[in-house]
Amino acid sequence: MRPLTVRARATLGASAVVAIALAVASLSLLGLLDANLLHNAEADADAQAAAVAQAAVAGKLDPLLPPTHGADFIQVVSAGGKVLTSSQNLTGRPPIVAQRPSVPGTIRSTWDVGPLGDEHRQRVVQVTTETENGLVTVYAGTSLRDADAADNTTSAALLVGVPLLLLTVAGVTWWVTGRALRPVEAIRAEVAEISDRDLHRRVPVPATHDEIARLAVTMNATLDRLESSGRRQRQFIADASHELRSPITVLRTQLEVALAVPDPTGWPELISGALEDTDRLQQLAADLLLLARIDAAEPVSTEPLDLTELVREAVGKRRGDRVPVRAELAPGVRVSGSSLWLTRVVTNLLDNAQRFAEHSVAVRLAGADGQAVLAVTDDGPGIPPADRERIFERFTRLDDARSRDHGGAGLGLAIARDLALHHHGTLTAEDSPRGARLVLRLPLSPPPEEED
């Protein structure tokens, strides 16, 4: 039963709030109007009753009370129930109240029907006073016809005006909400027409500089990211296909040559080359699978790690490398992350350094300012400042330092940076007196005694 559209809900909500406010205001208005008119009528009757009571005390009551302003009728009754005097319209009538008061005082009350048979309410003031002849009670009453007429007129006006006002509020709210939501509908319609082949299209941005305009800007920014992601995905597929084509072609050629050569003595060399290309294909497939997992934003299984021991183990496995690795590791550098993935980061950095180093590779680990800083430096040709971001792009090789002659598909540093970002860290290429210097920064974790 709830309204399905924002426009309908806004209209219903505004109408309900206005209806409640009008109902409270109308009841308050009627109450204040009735109370004010009742007070005025009571004040007039009170004055007349007090004046007649003073005359009774002084013994100056007229046999017939003249008409007075503010009182429709007056009657004076003794303690024994005898009518001493009254206004002309009550001449010859018995006491209007059967019960006699026993003590002096003033009582004010409202009667639904007056002594004169008036259809309107009567406000009656009863004043009992002590005289020489005993207690005397004065009844002075005034009709509330003016109050009733004002109440009826006001009620009729509210019965007509309140629904009209509610309809006006509902109509204005419906119209204003429709105009406010028109840009949203335009955005929705445009997004509904954008397919995976139309990511270059953008939604219209209204010139209102309000929340809807910011929504349109955010939507266009999202479309920019989607288009960029699609472009990177297509480029990735093209690069991967290109990288796979070369070893597959070479492998096929070697197998065809082995099949065509009748002399078995040449087969070991051909098979050895085929195995090398198979290893290259296997490594490339593993790298592509890891990149796919990273791009899928799979959660990292984190645990407290001693990064010092992890780097020491990774360096210890490189004893047979072409260039010796010199390590300077600060003790007790702890981080949180995946040991498998961080080991892969360190391995990729060492592979990159070994690939281009001439005589030495240096690894330095330290902890400072809440960060673990791992720097891997080689004495190779180095990285030009203009290319220090390009080397982290997938399938990127620099002309002099990144060629197939050195091996590798240009994925190692891209994988290392993506894994560093997944661990809330950074991987950058920084200045070095000679060669390349790659620096990994990861947030430190508290020591074991502080973890709980």
Task: For this entry, give a set of tags.
452 residues, alpha+beta, Helix Hairpins, Heat Shock Protein 90, five-stranded mixed beta sheet, 7 helices, 49% helix, rod-shaped
List the helices and strands in order. Answer: HEEEEEEHHHEHEEHEEHEE
Shape: rod-shaped
The CATH topology of the largest domain is given as Heat Shock Protein 90
CATH homology group of the largest domain: Histidine kinase-like ATPase, C-terminal domain
**Rg:** 50 Å
Averaged pLDDT:
83
The largest sheet, given as strand count, sense and whether it forms a barrel, is: 6 strands, mixed
Helix content: 40-55%
Question: How are the strands of the largest sheet arranged?
Answer: 1-3-2-6-5-4
Derived from helix and strand composition plus strand pairing, the structural class reads: alpha+beta
Characterize the quaternary organization of these chains.
single chain
β-sheet strand percentage: 15-25%
Spans of 5+ residues with little confidence (pLDDT < 50)?
A: 400-406
> Counting H and I runs of at least 4 residues, what is the number of helices?
7
The CATH class of the largest domain is Alpha Beta
CATH-scheme architecture of the largest domain: 2-Layer Sandwich
The domain count comes to: 3
Offer a concise description of the structure.
The protein is α+β, with helices and mostly antiparallel strands. The chain has seven helices and 13 strands.
Task: Describe this entry's structure for a reader.
With 452 residues, this protein is α+β, with helices and mostly antiparallel strands. It folds into 3 domains: 6-93 and 101-148, no CATH class; 211-295, Helix Hairpins; 303-450, Histidine kinase-like ATPase, C-terminal domain (Heat Shock Protein 90). It is 49% helix and 18% strand. It has 7 helices and 13 strands. The chain has helices at residues 6-58, 145-193, 211-260, 267-295, 307-316, 339-356, 412-422; strands spanning 64-65, 73-78, 83-87, 105-111, 122-131, 134-143, 303-306, 325-329, 334-337, 361-368, 371-378, 426-430, 437-443. The protein has a 6-stranded mixed beta sheet with strand order 1-3-2-6-5-4. A 5-stranded mixed beta sheet has the order 8-10-11-13-12. Strands 7-9 form a two-stranded antiparallel ribbon. Strand 12 and strand 13 form a beta hairpin. Residues 400-406 have low confidence and may be disordered.
